[in-house]
Design brief:
Radius of gyration: 30 Å
Shape: elongated
Oligomer: single chain
Structural class: alpha+beta
Length: 636
């Protein structure tokens, strides 16, 4: 079927080519015997010289562009591509569009680089001229994008595969540092222009073993929805603006997309990074793939972008045991002035948006997928039995809860928030509000979100262990009713016991008070940790645990994001180093703790927000931070 479609397409293109040749022959004949349109008599040569000149200019431009595209296609395919498929007449008026057919048949499939659609006809009318002009501009733009993508790919591979002297080991933690002088000598000047004034540069590289095959990872990266699902705490939102090339031979080899994304660190003190970029995928050898990103600032993005992605991405190599060796490179220029002083060391160390965080998240997510897909994975330990369908529903509900928590901290996706400026709120506390209407996944009314970030002189591992321990929850959580909580259900999501989804039950203080269930998701990796929870309705959770639809369970999440402060040794946060490079440890230095609450302050969506409600949420977040500091003996 595929071969028949290709033959049919080539047949149509040949017919179009024959029509153009016949049209050009008639134009040449008309020019040999020109007629005046007014009197019908012979015309002077000078009367048609302007039209002939236009045709000559158009013909020369098309030939030049065709040669340029064939040259790019040669780089793209790794072999020369001829622009002369059929013998061309000597006439300079011949438009030479037969070369388009040659590109299609030479690739063996319809062209994987859809840059020069065949021109059906060329007339001298104003409408046709404008259409051709627009098509030509678009074709030139796509050619430029491919050229940029090829140059970015070359730079990424060089950064990923070259060690010293291009990358040198730092003294603190042994992290790799890009040697700027060597980079300037070995790599071409920046292909997207000079660094903006006031911007600083961050470069990082990380290599790790990931339990996923190369093809699956490439497919995830080239699909914007799958990419966001794989990196939920980094990619706040993303979309594909245009698919310039979908790849060759049914694979992602040669795929080139225009994309945009919002990248985040879970803190109100770090602005979300809006980026518009090209994403290009290429297969370099059997089982070896590379995916590169490059910022493009002319795609309707923010008028004054605060960051640019220089060639960044990953090189993926299949390993014989079902794993892949992933080398990730992040090379970024950004405006440091928009970042709070508390988070600058973390961002400068490449632990906020750098390669270290991307690889750590990828390892944790792939390990989770592998465990959940395994037929021998333990659904529960000694807790309430959950069916396989209930397991899936509970995990889906936890995923929605965590995504909503991230959106409430950074105001980047899912819901549209309105930021509030009030005198009764601390400077470092971000307060936002929105109306919840006709959403079965949360209660209706006025929702208030408050978030803040603080520094703690305690390791991230210790903070995480304290916050996720249901036995110690009464030391900071008012929902615990002053006593320990009991874990009713447990779904493992990784080898580390801290990567799991749990269902907790708070005991009633007295007989008149009913018990309450809390859904909680915790995760930890080498870059940070997360504890997210939400009170849930008991009948609704029983339905979910039996495989019911979790979309109708109403919840408002709260929780914590924990990251190293960037000043310590840079060791892994988690005690289970899974890439063979991190080893075990607890991370030196202090922690950056982000606390976020989402609370329903009024069940009527039409109600007005009161000052008392804002003060209550501000007091709640301040009190929670104080309790955590006291419990961890931070004030000592």
């Amino acid at each position: 079927m595929k071969t028949q479609l290709e033959r049919h397409e080539n047949s149509i293109l040949r017919q179009d080519n024959d029509k153009l040749r016949a049209e050009n022959m008639s134009i040449r004949e008309a020019m040999r015997n020109p007629m005046c349109t007014n009197c019908g008599g012979p015309a002077l040569i000078g009367e048609i010289s302007l039209e002939e000149q236009h045709l000559r200019i158009e013909n020369a431009r098309l030939k030049d562009e065709l040669e340029r595209v064939c040259s790019l296609a040669g780089k793209f395919m790794g072999r020369p591509v001829s622009s002369m498929g059929h013998p061309m007449p000597n006439s300079s008026l011949e438009l030479g569009v037969g070369g388009i057919n040659v590109i299609s048949s030479d690739f063996g499939i319809s062209s994987p680089i859809p840059m020069l659609p065949p021109h059906k006809s060329i007339t001298m009318s104003n409408v046709a001229t404008n259409n051709n002009s627009n098509n030509n501009e678009r074709s030139f733009e796509r050619s430029m994008y491919l050229e940029l993508a090829l140059a970015a790919m070359d730079e990424l591979v060089k950064l990923a595969q070259t060690d010293e002297p291009l990358w040198i080991r730092g003294f603190e933690g042994g992290k790799e540092i890009l040697n700027r002088e060597e980079f300037s000598r070995t790599c071409a000047p920046c292909i997207i222009g000079m660094k903006p004034n006031g911007f600083v540069t961050e470069a990082s590289r990380e290599t790790g073993m990931v339990i996923i095959n190369g093809l699956a990872l490439v497919e995830t990266l080239m699909d914007s929805n799958k990419w966001a699902e794989m990196f939920p705490c980094i990619v706040a939102r993303t979309s594909t603006t245009e698919v310039i090339s979908s790849g060759m031979g049914g694979t992602r080899n040669g795929a080139l997309h225009l994309m945009n994304a919002a990248l985040q660190v879970l803190s109100p003190l770090v602005p979300v990074r809006e980026v518009n970029f090209l994403r290009f995928c290429k297969q370099h050898a059997e089982g070896v793939w590379a995916v590169v990103d490059l910022s493009i600032e002319s795609l309707g993005g923010p008028p004054f972008p605060t960051c640019r992605r220089l060639p960044s991405g990953c090189v993926v190599q299949d390993m014989p045991n079902g794993y892949s060796k992933v080398t990730w490179v992040e090379h970024i220029e950004y405006d440091e002035s928009v970042i709070h002083q508390l988070y600058r060391p973390l961002i400068n160390a490449g632990m906020g948006f750098g390669a270290h965080r991307w690889v750590a998240t990828l390892q944790r997510q792939c390990e989770c997928l592998a465990i959940l897909m395994s037929s021998t994975s333990p659904a529960t330990d000694h807790h309430t039995a959950i069916t396989a369908g209930g397991r899936r529903s509970m995990l889906k509900l936890a995923q929605r809860m965590t995504n909503n928590f991230c959106a409430g901290v950074c105001a980047s996706s899912v819901h549209k928030w309105n930021k509030l400026r009030t005198e009764n709120v601390d400077d470092d506390v971000q307060v936002m509000t929105r109306k919840s209407v006709d959403d079965p996944g949360e209660p209706p009314g006025i929702v208030l979100s408050a978030a803040t970030s603080v520094w703690l002189p305690v390791t991230p591992q210790r903070v995480f262990d304290f916050l996720r321990d249901e036995r110690l929850r009464s030391e900071w959580d008012i929902l615990s009713n002053g006593g320990p909580m009991q874990e009713m259900a447990h779904i493992a999501k990784g080898q580390d016991h801290g990567n799991c989804v749990s269902l907790l039950r708070a005991g009633a203080v007295n007989s008149s008070q009913s018990s309450m269930l809390i859904l909680q998701e915790t995760c930890i990796d080498a870059a940070g940790a997360l504890v997210v929870y939400a009170p849930v309705d008991i009948p609704a959770m029983h339905l979910v645990m039996n495989g019911g639809d979790s979309a109708y369970v109403a919840l408002l999440p709260s929780g914590f994001s924990i990251m190293p402060d960037g000043t310590g040794s840079g060791g892994p946060v988690s005690g289970n180093g899974s890439d063979g490079n991190g080893g075990s440890g607890h991370g030196g230095g202090g922690s950056l703790l982000t606390v976020g609450f989402q609370i329903l302050v009024n069940s009527l969506p039409t109600a007005k927000l009161t000052v008392e409600s804002v003060e209550t949420v501000n007091n709640l977040i301040s009190c929670t931070v104080q309790k955590i500091r006291a419990a961890l003996h931070c004030d000592n």
